[in-house]
Amino acid sequence: MSTRNYLADLSFVGTAYHGSQIQKNAVTVQGLFQNALEAVLGKLPDIKCCSRTDTGVHARHFYISFTSDVACDCVKMTAALNAHLPFDIRVLSVKEVSDEFHARYSAKGKRYEYLVWNGAVMDPFLTDRALHFGYPLDEKMLDETAKVFLGTHDFSSFCSSKSSVEDKVRTVFESGVTREGDLVRFGFAADGFLYNMVRIMTGALLQVSRGKLDKNDILLYLNGKKRDNLLITVPACGLYLTEVMY
Amino acid sequence: MSTRNYLADLSFVGTAYHGSQIQKNAVTVQGLFQNALEAVLGKLPDIKCCSRTDTGVHARHFYISFTSDVACDCVKMTAALNAHLPFDIRVLSVKEVSDEFHARYSAKGKRYEYLVWNGAVMDPFLTDRALHFGYPLDEKMLDETAKVFLGTHDFSSFCSSKSSVEDKVRTVFESGVTREGDLVRFGFAADGFLYNMVRIMTGALLQVSRGKLDKNDILLYLNGKKRDNLLITVPACGLYLTEVMY
Fold first, then answer.
1. What residues of chain A have any CB closer than 8 angstroms to a CB in chain B?
2. What is the pTM of this model?
3. Which of B11, B87, B125, B131 best probes binding to A when mutated, by most A CB atoms within 10 angstroms?
4. How many CB atoms lie within 10 A of CB A216?
5. Which segments of chain B belong to CATH 3.30.70.660?
6. Tens digits of per-residue pLDDT, A133-169?
């Protein structure tokens, strides 16, 4: 009996969850997905997640691979899993992948978006889904500033002190800021991201917007490995994992 | 002491509320707004709402006028009201209006939007904020069909039987369907709308999409004053009041 390897593409509103990774005594996306998978397959197979997201962080795409001893009809599997999941977590699709595929290690890169509402009054439809930032924000200037992150750098300063990863060098290949009315999008793509990296990079750009940092300060933080209290970590609610590149 | 007249522009996510109009033993947008206004002004003035919306219906703009014996700083008033309101109801602005202004009777027209998610799997970010419709939907054909609503008609067939309004003639000046990816927008503007009118017009178009009605059937319903079970009222969750024209 050969084991098959499947990849589920999920989307979830992170507000109600203690992040993606399974934990005891906390409701997580992985925990609920495992329960759904166990209900559908009759037993719990080996599963791998593409990454760990924090409490309140959202995902447009989040990938979980799992093995099955029996061949699955991917369309029926998608519907069956959704029937066992709450409405704020949806399996968008399931597909068969090669045996060697690993949801985390096979990823060549990831894309994240951080949403900022730049109106005087918060949009009620974006509560818990964007950061409200009421100060003036020049997106063209910030878009130009954001280009300093491009390339290969040591992102030690743009990483939570809780991170246990040794190698903090990452290559960023997209970094930009765009506006649509009062909604401002901070977009980043890289071969990998450190813990809180997008939230600290976005925080740095918002500090530039407020005149508390400039482009040269960011250049000093990049590679300089120094970290002071001028770098802030913006709240989780505005962060979206939008793509994993395989 | 002269009384001044003010107009508040609100936006709300309707999911948690039993509609806009105040009711005993139910949480409503008007009820919460009145509580906030009473807290800010120290007493409850006379207030008028632009319309009544059903349980679960949303508003990008919803207007409430109120009187005050004292002159208000509109920016401070906006912030003070928001401080007394939950995050899913926001006052976008407050402005002074003429004594004769009435939030409901001064309206020259209204615009509504009905959102349909036309993907195989529902977008979790649109739970309670759009209708999930998984059947094929040709938005160009429906946009053309939607034009039958344009002009002045007797909309008796496109109105809840609970409606107590006598004159059911309305003039529709915008009626169309557009798509952005899997999100399909049904947009209507008219000098006024009957109870459930947008939900029944959208339902009729979705029935056309499924081949259960055609353009001629809608023409028969319009002005024909007949109503049979082929007209459906789509759920409240996809409906947005998007503009009131004064």
1. 11-13, 58, 78, 82, 87-93, 121-125, 127, 129
2. 0.94
3. B125
4. 9
5. 112-245
6. 999 999 999 999 999 999 999 999 999 888 888 899 9
